[in-house]
Amino acid sequence: MNTGLDAQFVFRWLRAFLVAWAVAFPLVTFIAPIAGKLTEFTLRQITGQKPEKPFGR
């Protein structure tokens, strides 16, 4: 929605930015590693590869 550059523009933009940041930060912090592991698992199932040993073990 385009509301133009009025007196409340900065307030609305900052509020929207903070809400988006509050949603995005936990999503990236907690969900992204799970999504990466799920992707790796799925690709291993498709290709038939065995999991690699973790480095240093």
Description of the molecule:
By secondary structure, the chain is mostly helical. It has one helix spanning 9-47. The protein is 68% helix and 0% strand. It is rod-shaped, with a radius of gyration of 21 Å. The model has no long low-confidence stretch (mean pLDDT 87).
List the main descriptive attributes of the protein structure presented here.
single chain; 57 residues; mainly alpha; 1 helix; rod-shaped
Question: What do the pLDDT scores average to?
Answer: 87
Structure classification? mainly alpha
Profile the largest sheet: none
Proportion of residues in helical segments: 55-70%
Low-confidence stretches: none
By DSSP (H or I, 4+ residues per run), the number of helices equals: 1
Proportion of residues in β-strands: under 5%
Give the radius of gyration: 21 Å
Globular, elongated, flat, extended or rod-shaped: what is the shape? Answer: rod-shaped
Give the SSE string.
H
Number of strands: 0
User: Gap between N and C termini, in Å?
Assistant: 54 Å
Walk me through the topology:
Layout: H1 9-47
Provide a short characterization of the protein structure.
The chain is mainly α. Helices cover 68% and strands 0% of the residues. The chain is built from 1 helix and no strands.
